[in-house]
């Protein structure tokens, strides 16, 4: 019942009523930012993803997971808190090989699985929405040495905001398909604060990139994309 009261459930419910649950063509590239076609693709996850085990935390309707499974033959698991999203993902891409979608909390999945992954990633997903002092060490436990965690989050300076000055989350909002807003808690860190949390989890920050989106005025960055490697 807690899931069904979350803003993410309401978001998925509205999306499900407006978007047909049917097979979709697989996307030609992996997207990390708010503007499709900008920024890097799957190459930041590793130099050779063929047959590797990848984990997506907050997979939504499964577009990126399907791309990785199809383009590279990677074995991809997508985890999402909301069962409606998992049903959408399976309706879109359940026909594909090497692809599994699991309903559950990202932290609980990481704590329960015994699989070690060649890359873990999150695209506006669980990273930033789950306490980093809990989630990042759990990622570190499931990531193979030398392998990559990559995640994109809303830029902490979007719309003229300032990054949070401490480790506490701040109030943010989910914009629903009907344009209404529901409140959520988000850890809105800049790259330096993310680096501190990554270090504590045994992960070394390798890149931090920011991206703008002209559709949102272009004045402020909209996406922060970070990669880190397990030591």
Q: How would you characterize this protein structure?
A:
The protein is an alpha/beta fold. It has one domain (3-32, 47-230): Rossmann fold (3-Layer(aba) Sandwich). Helices cover 26% and strands 29% of the residues. The strands form 2 sheets. The protein has a 7-stranded mixed beta sheet with strand order 3-2-1-4-5-9-8, with helices on both faces. It has a two-stranded antiparallel ribbon with strand order 6-7. Helix 5 links the parallel strand 4 (117-123) and strand 5 (143-154). Helix 1 runs parallel beside helix 3 (83-93) and helix 4 runs parallel beside helix 5 (132-142). The N and C termini lie far apart (39 Å). The mean pLDDT is 94.
In a few lines, what is going on in this structure?
By secondary structure, this protein is α/β, with parallel strands linked by helices. The protein is built from six helices and nine strands; from the N terminus they run H-E-H-E-H-E-H-E-H-E-E-E-H-E-E.
The biggest sheet amounts to: 7 strands, mixed
Q: Beta-sheet strand percentage?
A: 25-35%
User: What is the element string, with H for helices and E for strands?
Assistant: HEHEHEHEHEEEHEE
- Helical segment count: 6
Integer tally of domains: 1
CATH superfamily: Vaccinia Virus protein VP39
Shape annotation: globular
Could you list the spans in which at least 5 consecutive residues all have pLDDT below 50? none
Corresponding CATH architecture: 3-Layer(aba) Sandwich
- Terminal CA distance reads 39 Å
Indicate the CATH topology.
Answer: Rossmann fold
CATH class: Alpha Beta
- The class by helix and strand makeup works out as alpha/beta
Query: How many extended strands?
Result: 9
- Overall residue-averaged pLDDT value: 94
Provide the helix percentage: 25-40%
Global Rg: 17 Å
């Amino acid at each position: 019942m807690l899931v069904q009261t979350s803003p993410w459930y309401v978001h998925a419910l509205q999306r499900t009523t407006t978007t047909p649950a049917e097979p979709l063509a697989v996307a030609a590239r992996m997207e990390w930012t708010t503007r499709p076609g900008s920024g890097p693709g799957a190459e930041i996850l590793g130099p050779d993803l063929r047959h590797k085990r990848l984990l997506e935390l907050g997979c939504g309707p499964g577009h990126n997971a399907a791309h990785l499974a199809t383009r590279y033959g990677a074995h991809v698991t997508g985890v999402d808190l909301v069962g409606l999203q998992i049903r959408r993902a399976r309706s879109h891409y359940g026909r594909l090989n090497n692809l599994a979608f699991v309903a559950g909390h990202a932290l609980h999945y990481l704590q329960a699985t015994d699989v070690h992954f060649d890359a873990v990633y999150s695209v506006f997903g669980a990273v930033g929405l789950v306490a980093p002092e809990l989630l990042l060490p759990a990622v570190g436990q499931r990531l193979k040495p030398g392998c990559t965690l990559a995640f994109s989050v809303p830029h902490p300076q979007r719309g003229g905001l300032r990054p949070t000055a401490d480790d506490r989350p701040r109030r943010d909002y989910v914009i629903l398909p009907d344009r209404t807003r529901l409140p959520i808690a988000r850890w809105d860190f800049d790259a330096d604060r993310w680096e501190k949390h990554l270090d504590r989890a045994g992960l070394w920050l390798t890149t931090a990139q920011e991206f703008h989106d002209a559709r949102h005025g272009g004045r402020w960055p909209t996406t922060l994309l970070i990669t880190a490697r397990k030591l």
